[in-house]
Amino acid sequence: MDLLLTWPFLALVCGLGGVLGLLVAPRKPDQPPRWRDPAWLLCLMLPIYMLHQFEEHGVDLLGRRFHFLVDMCGMLGHPALGTCPADPAFILAVNVGGVWAAGLCAIVWRRRNPMVGACAFGIPLVNGLAHLGPAIAHRAYNSGLLTGVLVFLPLCVVVLWTLLRAGILDLRRVLAVVATGIWVHAALMGLLLGSASGVIPRPLMLVLQVANGFVPLLVGALVGPCSRREVTDPPAPLSPLRR
Predict the structure, then answer these.
(1) Less packed terminus of the chain by CB within 10 Å, N or C?
(2) Are 189 and 126 in contact (CB under 8 A)?
(3) Which tens digits make up the pLDDT trace of 46-70?
(4) Which residues partner with 59 through β-bridges?
(5) Which residues neighbour 160 within 8 Å (Cβ) at sequence distance 6 or greater?
(6) What is the rounded distance in angstroms from the CA atom of residue 52 to the CA atom of residue 60?
(7) Residue 227: is its pLDDT beyond 70?
(8) Are 243 and 227 in contact (CB under 8 A)?
(9) pLDDT, average across residues 114-141
(10) CA separation for the pair 189, 182 (Å, rounded)
(11) How many whole angstroms separate alpha carbon 186 and alpha carbon 120?
C-alpha cells in the first residue's frame, strides 16, 4: 500500500472518529456548552482539517482522485505532472507533516496556551479563502471547496469570536492569527519554488514543510493569550474582551 496516495483515506477515518469522539464525549455538569468552551473548540482543528484533506486529496465531489495536485500544478504552469515541482511527497509533507503537527499542537497546548490553538486556526481560515477566491474567479468547483467554505470559514469565525469573548484574544492577537495562516501558506509556496529553482535541496524542502507546521506554536508562544493564565477545565465563564 502506497502511503503517498492512500493517506487521505486514513485522514477520513481519523477525522470522522475525532469529530464523533468530541461530540459524544461526556462532559462534567459544571462545564459550559461545547460551542462556548475554548478548550473544546481548539480540539476541532485537526479532525476537521482531516475531513477537508480527503476532499482535497482523496476523492472530491466530482469523483476525482488526488485532483488538487492537478490544479496546483496547472496554477504553477505545469499541466504535465511529470514536470511539476509539486508531487505526492510534497503533498504528504505539507498535510500529514505540517498540518497535523499544527493540529496536534493546538490540542496539546489548548489549556496551557490557547493562543497556540488560535494561531493553528489561521491555517484553515486562510485555506478556506484560498479555495473561495479561485472558485469565484473561475466560477467553478475546485477540490476542497465544499469543506473549505462551508466548514472552515464558519468554524474559524465561531472559534475566534468565542476566544474574543473569553478574553483570550484581542484585535492584535486576531491579526496574529491571520498573519500565521498567511505565513504558513506563503512559506509553503516559497519553499516549493525555492526547491524547483535549485536554491533549496529537495530533501531539506520536505523537512522544512513539516517544520512549517510548528509556526503556530512559535507565534502562540511569543504572543500568548490576553489573560496570560492557564485555561483550565472547566474554562472560566465568558467575559467581555479585555486586554
Answers:
(1) N
(2) no
(3) 999 999 999 999 999 999 999 999 9
(4) 65
(5) 118, 121, 169, 174, 177
(6) 10
(7) no
(8) no
(9) 97
(10) 11
(11) 15
For residue 161, how many other CB atoms are within 10 A of its CB? 12
CA angle 145, 140, 137 (to 5 degrees): 95
Contact 160, 126 (CB under 8 A): no
Q: What percent of the chain has pLDDT over 90?
A: 84
* Residue 6: pLDDT over 60: yes
For residue 212, give the DSSP letter: G
Residues 140-154 pLDDT 10s: 999 999 999 999 999
User: 65 has which bridge partners?
Assistant: 59
Closest CA to 121 of 49, 39, 171: 49
The answer to whether residues 70 and 81 touch, using CB atoms and an 8 Å cutoff, is: yes
Query: Mind listing the pLDDT tens digit for each residue in 184-202?
Result: 999 999 999 999 999 999 9
Q: Are 61 and 36 in contact (CB under 8 A)?
A: no
Strands in the chain per DSSP E: none
Torsion region of 66: left, alpha or beta (phi above 0 gives left; psi -120 to 50 gives alpha):
left
Residue pointed to by grid coordinates 482523496: 58
**For the chain, domain boundaries:** 3-223
Which amino acid, residue 178? V
Where b means 16+ CB within 10 Å and e means fewer, 89-102 reads ebbbbbbbbbbbbb
H or E, element range at 69: helix 67-75
Tell me how long the chain is. Answer: 243
